[in-house]
Amino acid sequence: DLHTNVHIDPLPIEDEIGESSQLTNQQQKILAVQRVWENYRLHIFWFMLYQFVVLAIFAERAYYYSVEREHAGLRRIAGYGVTVTRGAASAMMFTYSSLLVTMSRNIITKLRETFFNRYIPFDAAHGFHKVIAMTALFYTVMHCVGHGINFYHICTQTANDLTCIFREYYHLSDELPKFRFWMFTTLTGVTGYMLVLVVITLYVFAIPYARRYLFKTFWYTHHLYIVMYGLLILHGSGRLVQPALFQWFFVFPVCVFAIDKLISFSRKKVELVVYKAEKLPSNVTHLQFKKPTNFDYRSGQWVRIACLALNSEEYHPFTLTSAPAETTLDLFIRAVGPWTQNLRTVYDPDNPKNRDLVSGNLVYPRLYLDGPFGEGHQDWYKFEIAVLVGGGIGVTPFASILKDLVYKQQLKTQLSCKKVYFLWVTRTQKQFEWMTDIIRQVEEQDKNGLTDIHIFITQFYQKFDLRTIMLYICERHFQKVSNRSLFSGLRSVTHFGRPQFDNFFEGLQELHSDVGQIGVFSCGPPPMTRSVEAGCAYCNQIEGPVFIHHYENF
C-alpha cells in the first residue's frame, strides 16, 4: 500500500507488523493506569509526600490557633480567619524555602550520579520547582485574603483592647487605629505590602511568554528572590501575632543553595577562548571554545554560558553537542530572542570588531561557563532499546550522544544499549547540514548495525499529495539502487511528512517484545514532544514493552 508506506513507513522493514493483543476498553484503561504508575511512581510519590507535609504544617498551625488558642484575644476577635492565615503562613515558609533546593543544580547533578537517583527523580527538579511555586502562590493568596478579613475585624476594636492583644505595638492615642495604621506603620504591615508587590513581579515575569521574549526582564526580576527572602525574615520578626518561625524553615535550604552557588562561582569566572564561530542557516550560530581543565561531562548534558561582550552576569542554558572525548566544547545556538540575536551578531566572522588590527586574525569575545548539569537524556545508555527524537535545533543533545556512540564503537566499548533509533524531524535537512555530517560519520563507524536513523522532512504534505507520492517513489528507487537517500546522501531512511509516533512505537513493541522497557528521549518544540508523549501513552495501553519518556522543550 503506497499511501500507508508514505504516511507511516515507521521501520526499515517490509514485513507487516502483527496486530497487537486485543484488549477490552476497560482492560486498556487499567493497563494504561498501571503503565503511568510504573513510569511516574517516583514522581507521584514525592509529589504526594510533599503536599502531605505542606498540609500537615498548615494543619498544625490551624489546630493550634483553633483549639489551643481558642480563648485568646486575637482568636476571639478574628475568629477562624487567624486560623487560616497562621496555617497558610507556615505553609508559605516551607514552600518558599524549599524552592531553593530545587534550584541547586550542581548538587542535583552530583546526586543523580549516586544511588539516590533510584529513589528520587532528580530530572524532574525543574518541573517540581514550578509545582512548589504554584503551591506557594496558593497559600500566599490564602494568607493575603485571610489577613484582609482579619484587619477588618481588628479595626472595629477599641484602642485599649488592641493594646492588650498586640503588646508589641502600644498605640499612644485614644484614636481608633485604622487599617492603614497596621499596613503602613508596623514592620509586619510594611514588609507584607512589599512582599505582595515582589511576589506579583516574580510570578508575572516567570510566565512562558516572558521567559521566551523578555528573558532579560525575567532574569533580573527573578533575582528579586533575594529581596523576597530578606522581607520574609523581617516580616516575621515584627512579632505582630507570634514569634518569628521562618528561619527554622529557611536555614537548611539556604545552606544547600549557598554551597551550590559557591560551586558555580568557583568555576564560572574562568575566561574561555572561542576558537571557532560560524553563522549557519536557520539563524543557527556554531561556537567552538576551549574545554576547561578537569571539565568532565556526559553526552546529553547542558551548560550555561555568558558572553563577556554582552553581559558577564547574564547566563543562558544550551546543550553541548560535543562528545566527552573531544578536546573542545561545541554549541549550536539558534537565534530566537534578543540575547541569542545579539550573540549571533557578536560572533559574526564578518564583524570588523572580531578582526585583530595587527595580525589580521579572528579574535572572538571570550565566554564564561557554568556546568555541566544533568538531565534525562544522558541516561540513554541504560536502556537496551533507546529512541532519540530531535526536532529542529532540539537535535543538539543527540548530536553529542551520537558522537559519543561513534567514539565508544571505535574503542569497542561494551554497551548495555543494544539498539538506538534516532528520529530527526526537520523542515528540510539543509537547515542543519552540520547534523548531516555527524550522521554520516555515525553511519561510517557503525559496523554492527547499532543505530537505525530516520529523517522526517516536514515541508512536504503527508496525505494524498501527488508530489509527495512521486518524491517517495524516486526516493525509494534511488535508495534501492545506491543504498543512499536521494535528498540527504545518507544511508538513513528519509520520510516525508510528520512521524506517526503511535505506529512507530507499536512497531517497536513487535520487534522488541522480549524487552521490558524502551527509553524514549525527545527534545524539540512542545507540539512534537506532546506527540511523542501521546504515542508512548497509546502504546502503553498495549501489552508489551513499557515506553518511558524523557523530554525537554525549547
Pick out the low-confidence regions.
1-21
In terms of quaternary structure, the protein is single chain
How many helix segments?
Answer: 19
Radius of gyration from the alpha-carbon trace, in angstroms: 29 Å
User: What's the main sheet like?
Assistant: 6 strands, parallel
Structure description:
This protein is of the alpha/beta class and 554 residues long. Helices cover 49% and strands 14% of the residues. It has 19 helices and twelve strands. It has helices at 2-7, 25-68, 73-78, 80-102, 105-111, 125-154, 159-165, 179-184, 187-204, 208-213, 215-222, 225-237, 246-265, 338-346, 396-410, 433-445, 466-482, 501-511, 526-539; strands spanning 274-280, 284-290, 302-307, 316-319, 328-334, 367-373, 385-391, 419-426, 451-457, 493-496, 517-524, 546-553. Strands 10-9-8-7-11-12 form a six-stranded parallel β-sheet, sandwiched between helices. A three-stranded antiparallel β-sheet has the order 1-2-5, covered by helices on one side. Helix 9 runs antiparallel to helix 12. The radius of gyration is 29 Å and the shape is globular.
Q: What's the arrangement of secondary structure elements?
A:
Layout: H1 2-7, H2 25-68, H3 73-78, H4 80-102, H5 105-111, H6 125-154, H7 159-165, H8 179-184, H9 187-204, H10 208-213, H11 215-222, H12 225-237, H13 246-265, E1 274-280, E2 284-290, E3 302-307, E4 316-319, E5 328-334, H14 338-346, E6 367-373, E7 385-391, H15 396-410, E8 419-426, H16 433-445, E9 451-457, H17 466-482, E10 493-496, H18 501-511, E11 517-524, H19 526-539, E12 546-553
Parallel strand pairs: 7-8, 7-11, 8-9, 9-10, 11-12
Antiparallel strand pairs: 1-2, 2-5, 3-4, 3-6
Helix pairs in contact: 2-4, 4-6, 4-13, 9-12, 15-16, 18-19
